[in-house]
C-alpha cells in the first residue's frame, strides 16, 4: 500500500473535476479511479470521487470484487 495518508478533507480535493485526479476511500484504503472508464468525470452511478464510499460499496452489484484491480494511492486517516 502507498504510504500517503489522506484526511477526509484532503480526499475531497480529488473529485475528478477540473483536472483533479479521482480518488475514493473504501475501508480505509484510498484508490485511484482516474483512469477507470465508468468513473470518467469523477462520478459513477450517483457516487462522487473524493469521498469515503465504505458504506456504499456493499450495495454495488460488484461489491468489493473490483478493488484488487485498482491502484492504491494511500490510506484514509480519521
UniProtKB/TrEMBL annotation:
Protein name in UniProt: Cytochrome b5 heme-binding domain-containing protein
Organism the protein comes from: Companilactobacillus nodensis DSM 19682 = JCM 14932 = NBRC 107160
Transmembrane parts of this sequence: none
Domain (Cytochrome b5 heme-binding) ranges: 6-77
InterPro entries: Cyt_B5-like_heme/steroid-bd, Cyt_B5-like_heme/steroid_sf
